[in-house]
Design brief:
By secondary structure, the protein is an alpha+beta fold. The chain has 2 domains: 3-229, P-loop containing nucleotide triphosphate hydrolases (Rossmann fold), CATH 3.40.50.300; 236-306, OB fold (Dihydrolipoamide Acetyltransferase, E2P) (Beta Barrel), CATH 2.40.50. The protein is built from 8 helices and 17 strands. It has helices spanning 41-49, 91-95, 106-119, 135-147, 165-182, 193-199, 217-222, 227-232; strands at 3-12, 15-25, 30-34, 56-61, 64-65, 76-79, 153-157, 185-190, 202-207, 210-215, 237-239, 242-244, 250-265, 269-276, 279-286, 297-301, 305-306. The protein has a 6-stranded mixed sheet with strand order 6-7-8-3-9-10, with helices on both faces. The protein has a 4-stranded antiparallel sheet with strand order 2-1-4-5, with helices on one face. A hairpin with a 3-residue loop joins β13 and β14. The two termini are 30 Å apart. Bound molecules: adenosine-5'-diphosphate. Residues 12, 17, 35, 37-43 line the site of adenosine-5'-diphosphate.
């Protein structure tokens, strides 16, 4: 495996922020770490980046143990939520900053920087101040600055959380394009399920400093390994260790009777609350399907599955 994390543990004042974390990533893989605030996502990223000292564990990148190296010796670049750009510097100065430490001649660095601007569709921006740019443009500059040093691993810490929904969508596409162009492996921290589902090859779901599940989006959604994963990802009806997703409740003439007791128009779908055998369940139907009213009797088939 290209990246191998073994038994990573980090304590703050004797409280374990992350406990015995192990996972690996293949070259070019995009792994998302997903979980609620405080579950340890940033701690994992900062441990790998070398910004905090770990208490225990190994970090192996491309066959080399790097846990004792300084951040600048790890061949890893990080893009932060706040972008971390130099506000008083121009776009090109920000982009080529990392080359300073690599004995580049200024002229060659600028050439390299201009190539990066082209790749990121930022031609003509070189002499602008970063404060003159939109959030999306600033994020592309931050990506350029990270990529110019040709890191083996790119760490992204909630990189899209300051962007509006439309920009988020285009930045996701941008990341997938960058992966192809640079053949780079990425570890992406987010609390946003849609980010994770849109770009991750595999998702690590975390809770309270530990890994709940590592899997593809499809498996995490369809075969959640714990009640935590089930509740954190999407919505579900849960009863005694069994569950059914709201969209999995089917309408069928041969089904059993249930009663509609609640209804909310949600846009492309309608969410119903139905009463079936003294329990209430959430059910969703697309808005172009037959619409029901409160008190309607409906006939349903539902197979609850074990968590
Ligand atoms: P996330 O990124 O998932 O929000 P963090 O990795 O930032 O989670 O935090 C994990 C846990 O470690 C939290 O309980 C947090 O309060 C604690 N923590 C993080 N940084 C520090 C610190 N510098 N000092 C003490 N506790 C910290």
């Amino acid at each position: 495996m290209f990246l191998n994390i073994k038994n990573l543990t980090k304590k703050y004042n004797n409280v374990e922020a992350v406990k015995n974390i192990s996972f690996s990533a293949e070259e070019k893989e995009i792994i998302c770490i997903l979980g609620p605030s405080g579950c340890g996502k940033t701690t994992i990223l900062q441990s790998i980046g070398g910004f905090i000292k770990i208490d225990r564990g190994e970090i192996i990148l491309d066959g080399k143990n790097i846990e004792d190296l300084e951040p600048e010796d790890r061949e890893i670049a990080t893009v932060f939520q706040s972008y971390g750009l130099f506000p008083h510097k121009t776009v090109i100065e920000n982009i080529i900053y990392g080359l300073k430490f690599r004995k580049y001649k200024k002229k060659d660095a600028i050439e390299e920087g201009k190539r990066m601007l082209e790749i990121l569709n930022l031609e003509g921006y070189e002499n602008k101040k970063v404060t003159e740019l939109s959030g999306g443009e600033q994020q592309r500059v931050a990506l350029g600055r990270a990529l110019i040093v040709k890191p083996k691993l790119l760490l992204l810490d909630e990189p899209f959380s300051n962007l509006d929904t439309k920009l988020r969508v285009s930045m996701r596409e941008e990341l997938l394009r960058i992966r192809e162009l640079f053949n780079i492996t990425m570890l992406f921290v987010t609390h946003d399920q849609e980010d994770a589902f849109s770009i991750a090859d595999r998702i690590i779901v975390m809770n309270k400093g530990q890994i709940e599940q590592i899997d593809t989006a499809r498996n995490i959604y369809l075969n959640p390994k714990s009640e935590f994963v089930l509740n954190f990802i999407g919505s579900a009806n849960i009863d005694n260790g069994y569950f059914i997703r709201p969209e999995a409740i089917r309408i069928s003439a041969n089904g059993e009777e249930a009663t509609v007791v609640g209804k909310t128009f949600k846009g492309f779908f309608i969410e119903y609350i139905i009463e079936y055998k003294d329990n209430r369940y959430k059910m969703i139907r697309l808005n172009n399907e037959k619409e029901y009213q409160i008190n309607d009797k409906i006939y349903i088939e539902m197979e609850m599955r074990e968590i």
